[in-house]
Amino acid sequence: MILTSPSISRLNGIQKVVEEIFVNSDCFLFIDDVIAENPFSYVSTVYERMNFCPEYIIGIGGGSVIDLAKAISVSSTIEELQEIFYHSKTLKKYSNVIAIPTTFGTGAETSYGAILYDDEKKIKNGLRGVEVQPNLVYLDFDLYNSASKRIKALAGFDCMTHCVETYVSLKSNDLIRYQAVKSLDTVFCNLEKAVEGDINAVKKMAIGSMMMGFNLAFSSTCMPHRLQYVIGPLTNTSHSEGLAALYKGWIQFISKNKTGPFSDLAKDLRMSTSELKNKIERLKKNLGIDYSLTDFGLNTNDIENILQKVSGNLSADPYYKDMDSVNEFIKLSL
Ligand SMILES: [Fe+2]
């Protein structure tokens, strides 16, 4: 089974390639209408079109496409998928997954998570486990470069957040921190050039993003990712747009401490804490994604509602003390 999105299929002539490879063959299913965020109402239509259990699922696309391939590889029906989504259980691997990423950012090509969205209950969550990780990854740098400048900027910012959060997380270790520092340096040196189409910069970003997928698998993200899962459905904004807005407050919140993991990260990059803070804020401006939660129509009256919806484990975040700390972080992001 080959999964891709309409824009990727159209931009890169995927259907033509697939038809040439599988000429006179009926042993494949080509689905090129995958939509962002993987809402259950859409995912169930994919299961309806599957009348066999694929030996291989090839996901060609951004995080949503690859996450859908990963999710279907561990659940043979929509009911089984929902069961895992709500009551994480031992996973069975039905299909091998080949990931062909087209954006440098999500790390979906190597991470252990597949993010999905229950659009009826308005809950975003992930299937997690080693079985979810793709079996094989192909990096095709021209595919990455076919994305628009805005998509590249947003995806690259997501990669940047994975560097910062997997580094500061309490689940981090020396290897994670080493990879995070290297990838963050890659983002600072290459993201803006990659957005402009510099193929060497695109290559470096693609590898940095893939390495951060491993970091996501072995460390964890922090409060911004937990909060994005709430504000995304609430404001109808993408993962990276939400993160860009949340980093307005997050960076202010964590850079107040002159010691701790964020200042360690700055030291590893040979910067002061305020220099690192300024560099991230400048990157947001240069990429044209300098959002705040206010830009998405939220205000102080929404904070209580957001706090009630936060789920997932916040305890790996060294800057999380109690819900008051989340409250302060949200206020700074407005
Ligand atoms: Fe992310």
Question: What is the structure about, briefly put?
Answer:
The chain is 55% helix and 9% strand. The protein has helices at residues 6-12, 14-21, 40-49, 63-73, 78-86, 141-145, 149-168, 174-195, 199-218, 223-235, 239-255, 261-268, 273-287, 303-309, 323-333, and strands spanning 2-4, 30-31, 56-61, 96-101, 113-118, 123-128, 136-137. β5 (113-118) and β6 (123-128) form a beta hairpin.
Fraction of helical residues: 40-55%
Q: Compute the gyration radius: what is it? A: 19 Å
CATH superfamily of the largest domain: Dehydroquinate synthase-like - alpha domain
| Percent in strands | 5-15%
Number of helices: 15
- Placed side by side, the strands forming the largest sheet appear as 2-1-3-4-7
Q: Let me know the number of strands.
A: 7
- CATH topology-level name of the largest domain: Dehydroquinate synthase-like, alpha domain
Class derived from helix and strand content = alpha/beta
Helices and strands, in order, run as EHHEHEHHEEEEHHHHHHHHHH
Basic shape: globular
Overall pLDDT confidence: 94
CATH architecture of the largest domain: Up-down Bundle
Name every ligand kind in the structure.
fe (ii) ion
Q: Report how far apart the termini are.
A: 43 Å
CATH level-1 class of the largest domain: Mainly Alpha
Number of domains: 2
Q: Let me know the largest β-sheet.
A: 5 strands, parallel
List low-pLDDT spans: none
